[in-house]
Amino acid sequence: MITIRTYFFPETLEAAYEKLTERKNNAVIGGGAYLKLGSKAIGTAVDLSKLGLEYINEEETFFEIGAMTTFSKMMLNEGLNKHFTNLFQQSIEDIVGMQLKNMVTVGATIYSRYGFSDFLTALLVTDTKVKLFKAGWVSLEEFLEQGPAERDILEKIRIEKRKGFYNFQELRGSSSDYSIINLALAKEGEEYRVAVGARPTRAKLALNTMEFLQNQELTNENVKKAGDILSGELAFGTNVRGSKEYRQSMAKVLLKKALQEVSKDEN
Amino acid sequence: MKINVKINGKEKALEIAPDDYLSEVLRREGHLGVKKGCDTGSCGVCTIHVDDTAVLSCGMLAAKADGKTVTTIEGVQEKAERIRYELGKRGVDQCGYCAPGTIMSILYLEKVVKDPTEEEINRYMKGNYCRCSGYVGQLEAVKSYLEGQKHEVCE
Amino acid sequence: MKYVNDSIKKIDSEALLKGKGVYTDDLAPRDALWIKVVRSPHASAKISNIDDRLTRKVPGVEMVLTYKDLQRIPFTRAGQCYPELSPYDKFILDEYVRHVGDDVAIIVAENQKSAEMGAKRLKVSYEILDPVLDYRKAEGHATLVHPEEDNFIPVDFVGYDRKKNLACDIGFEVGEIKEALKESEVVIQKTYESQAQAQAMMETQRAYSYEDEYGRLVVVSSTQIPFHVRRTLARALDMPMSKIRVIKPRIGGGFGSKQSIHAEFYPALITKLTGKPSKIVYSRKDVFTGTTSRHKMQFDITLGATKEGKILGIEMNALSDTGAYGEHANTTVGAAGKKVLTLYNKVKACSFKGKAVYTNNLPGGALRGFGVTQGTFALESAVNELAEVLKIDPVKLREMNMINKGETTPIYNIITKGAGPEPIYMDSCELEACVEKGKELFGWENRKNQIEKEKSSLRKKGKARGTGMAIAQQGSGLPNIDMAGATIKLNDDGFFTLLVGATDIGTGSDTILSQIAAETLDVSTDKINIHASDTDVSPFDSGAYASSTTYTSGNAVIEACKKMNALIKEYGSKVLEEKIEDISFQRGNIQSTSGKEISLEEFSNKITYSMLHQQLTATGSFVPKKAAPPYMAGFAEVEVDLDTGKVEVLDFVGVVDCGTAINPVLAQVQTEGGIVQGLGMALFEEVKVSSTGKLKSNSFMEYKIPTRKDICRIQVKLIEGHDETGPYGAKSIGEVVINTVPPAIVEAIYQAVGVRIRTLPATPEKVWHGMDANKG
């Protein structure tokens, strides 16, 4: 069970930050959908929903997305889908149900760095920066790796527009379950970005695989090689949804399926 | 703490605890059509609309409803008459426990997706579990309902 | 037939679809004390100390109860007729905890938050014991799950032996199985295992209690078995049964979960102690950790047949994991043989042995299919494997060996309580028609050819398809065991009140029983007001389980209504002043052959207000005399992803023989729901436990049931049938509908990719491993 002593709707980010850092047991409330799963005793709940952080702004060279933007807004945003060849739609649409997607926020998902997340895997193959109120801009990759240096508030993210092809793949045991494993791929010019998540630990870029794929013709042999590199370079583990061995093999399969989509797109 | 919330068209000022969930508050206020099934945002039986968007009332802190418009099954009785007819005649109401949430999702689907395909209906309603019916008749009911709505609009 | 075999809307449909407050928690008094049960984090432990000082400091906490505060009375939670075939091995609270989730203490508070905070603050010290977790090693294990000496079983024929961790050890044999197998030209021997599955009804267990104006204890509960609840509460609380009243409102699904008594003990106890209203609403986690799931079972099966495909012998040895408590242990494992081996009546011999063992896993319990689902998975999988070995079409193999209309098997004489030596014929069996119709609807031959044709093009897409089928039966109530009563009362103004103890858990049985009453009385259904179930008012009914309501309770309704017809004629003759043999009662009118006539409305007003002054009521009772099994044939087509092993069911055809359906649409929905529940069981549903007995799947985030996106094209056909013993020819349908699904699907997987899944569920990883091994 969670308990909350007082509830606070700040009107500025400064006020939110001040309240958050005032006491150790104060906490930021995003969408709040997953809050219940924990067992926290929260002093003051700092709710960001009245700060105007729910937006997707398309600028000339980037998208800026407020922390309180919900998954369903991400999934349905035409600009994002057009620019990122439906990457966000693909990575969000199969998550539980619409009701949950209307509550789960971009900011809370990134800040919590969930291992099971499909969305984070997808986001990781784009050029995304995270704006923290205190620490300022930091790359998503770095943020996922290290988390915030100190308690902070995620204000927004910025996704750079790059011309490319994007694809998301996941394997589920059943339609409303978390992924056994997921993979996202971006091809921007001759450069690839590949991220694998739900390993079951959090999403990570496969740097060696990316390097290998660069300028490579997508022959069966190369696809297989890329898969071998991928399953060798990232750590996979066992949990209730799948074994390490299975995940390792399935990472290859998902890469193959994503590369097939690349070939299809190019033809 | 106090929240101001419009529930089914009525403005209310409610005294709540900061850690109250919206489903509990709504039930306390007599909206017993708001059911609870899982505590983990998985089953959808607690589905309501907040500012015309379908959400899970058992996963939403009541404080978040401050300044918002909340609609429960009690607020859509007239609107849902034909949905009840379509579900009822196919016997897919069964135990009925998931029905209010399911109906709220059908209304949400109708609002946000124009002419949904079967695939879209299933995707938008996937968050509503039903253990009794096997979903087959529910899909038929939704399709028939939406088809009927089209004619209603044309007429 | 005017009112039966008609798909009228459920009579509670509007209330349910409007979200009216008609379920247990909707009706509970606002000021009821809130109860929370503290549960064990250990699979096996002895409580060494409970420190409740912090709990008692939580504002709002009124009471903390531990085993030291309670009278020690063993009972069983199984909802079965007395004497139960289940051991009395449970106490409301005990010094020992026997599974993760077992009850440790009861916290009572003014509201939910205080109760939960109180539970959180309770400090319990345990002496952790070595758990027995592997059910294959449980029998004769050095650790006893039940070391206490005061537990017992009220019957002596189920092979209960606490000192060997045996909840039961039963069996039966027809013919000489060794001989039959020796004679067989082809013998296959295989082992199958079906998993623990959760009932996953949408409304969790819950109950509230209050003391009424006469000082009696009223318990309102979401239950399938109000009468068994009353009897068991009386025992567990050491109260006279006459002081307890159990009421069942609308129920948000059961599937067997509410055929055991769980939530009821706590509010009943608290109200008894405090005199105050109290309630408990199980969280989903309480349900997963503190109640039951389908018994996990393992089967060793030996099948012997001639080369031509005549099955000569079937040997079936079952081992069931009943977990920490033995509720329903004997009956489920027994059903896995009794209602499965009867499918193949042409064998020379068959034998069944079934053991259920205690472990420190979650208790097994009732779940739709009740052992038959497990047994059918094993036997039907084995028959499919035999077909493969014999190179005979699996449908043809069934047609050669399965039970047909008018046939029998001596097994029925063994398993039917009180049966003599006379053969018990299955006169209403339409299994043959089910198979025939299913074959046609599914396009069994064509579809196989089509798949063969498309094989290489599918393979290029990384997919393979296959088809499979299975047959199954269940029962309609339990012969000479489970009884139902019904009372019909004629009111002034000519309408009836039908009182039944039958328990509508969402299936529509209130509607169906009203239709049956209308048919028997020849009045429209709106003249029937049904009332169910309240132990103070309703006649006895064993409850909604064992596929009994339509058949058993339906027959009781007919009995009552026939008596009512006779009463109406008797008093009609007095009112019309004609001889009774000249009176008829039809379409709501009482007529004499001489042409005198009076409407039921006028008649009832007359005998109430102006003459005779008689209240007409009639009660009927019914207990099944013989098995009236419903049958089903199921056909599946699957597509398997060759890279991942993920199985997608494309199509499922289910053809059911439930005799004459009283309400065909409701029967169809039962079937569709059962197929989807079976699909979940076949592919992914599984109660998962860690190596230390911790439950990994304790929420709907971890335990997955099928959603709209998991299902396939489902076609259901009800065969026109008629059972002489059924109400207007009906048999029950609630359970049979799940049984064919897992074996049909795993066979289809085998046909697609050559992988035999003998341990459910067929997860992508298992199928992938199988494909990988085949490559090797």
What descriptors fit this protein?
heterotrimer, B: 155 residues, alpha+beta, Ubiquitin-like (UB roll), DNA polymerase, domain 1, 2 domains, five-stranded mixed β-sheet, 5 helices, 5 strands, 15% strand, globular, C: 776 residues, Aldehyde Oxidoreductase, domain 3, Aldehyde Oxidoreductase, domain 4, 3 domains, seven-stranded mixed β-sheet, 30% helix, 23% strand
What is the strand content of chain C? Answer: 15-25%
Helicity level of chain B:
25-40%
How far apart the termini of chain B lie comes to 48 Å
Regarding CATH, which class of the largest domain in chain B? Mainly Alpha
Taken together, the total number of domains of chain C comes to 3
Number of separate domains of chain B:
2
CATH superfamily of the largest domain in chain C, please? Aldehyde oxidase/xanthine dehydrogenase, molybdopterin binding domain
- Mean pLDDT of chain C equals 97
The most extensive interface between chains reads: B-C, 55 and 59 residues
Low-pLDDT stretches of chain B:
none
Largest sheet of chain B: 5 strands, mixed
- Topology of chain B as a string of helices (H) and strands (E): EEHEEEHHHH
Please identify the oligomeric state. Answer: heterotrimer
What integer is the average pLDDT of chain B?
A: 96
CATH fold title of the largest domain in chain B: DNA polymerase, domain 1
User: Can you name the CATH architecture of the largest domain in chain B?
Assistant: Orthogonal Bundle
Give an overview of the whole structure:
The complex is a heterotrimer of chains A (about 270), B (about 160) and C (about 775). Chain A is an alpha+beta fold. Chain A is built from eleven helices and twelve strands. Chain A has helices at about 15-20, 70-75, 80-85, 85-90, 100, 105-110, 120-125, 140-145, 205-215, 220-235, 245-265; strands spanning about 5-10, 25-30, 40-45, 55-60, 60-65, 130, 135-140, 155-160, 165-170, 180-190, 190-195, 205. In chain A, the strands form three sheets. In chain A, strands 4-5-8-6-7 form a five-stranded antiparallel sheet. The model of chain A has no long low-confidence stretch (mean pLDDT about 95). Chain B has about 160 residues and is of the alpha+beta class. Chain B has two domains: about 1-70, Beta-grasp domain (Ubiquitin-like (UB roll)); about 80-155, [2Fe-2S]-binding domain (DNA polymerase, domain 1, Orthogonal Bundle), CATH 1.10.150.120. Helix content of chain B is about 35%, strand content about 15%. A five-stranded mixed sheet of chain B has the order 2-1-5-3-4, covered by helices on one side. In chain B, helix 2 (about 80-90) runs antiparallel to helix 5 (about 135-155). The model of chain B has no long low-confidence stretch (mean pLDDT about 95). Chain C is of the alpha+beta class. Chain C folds into three domains: about 15-20 and about 30-130 and about 205-280, Aldehyde Oxidoreductase, domain 3 (Alpha-Beta Complex), CATH 3.90.1170.50; about 295-475 and about 625-775, Aldehyde oxidase/xanthine dehydrogenase, molybdopterin binding domain (Aldehyde Oxidoreductase, domain 4, 2-Layer Sandwich); about 485-620, Aldehyde oxidase/xanthine dehydrogenase, molybdopterin binding domain (Aldehyde Oxidoreductase, domain 4), CATH 3.30.365. In chain C, about 30% of the residues lie in helices and about 25% in strands. Chain C has 21 helices and 28 strands. Chain C has a seven-stranded mixed sheet with strand order 3-5-1-12-9-10-11, sandwiched between helices. In chain C, strands 7-16-15-14-8 form a five-stranded mixed sheet, sandwiched between helices. A four-stranded mixed sheet of chain C has the order 18-26-27-28, sandwiched between helices. In chain C, a hairpin with a 4-residue loop joins strand 23 (about 590) and strand 24 (about 595-600). Chain C is globular. Chains in contact: A-B, A-C, B-C.
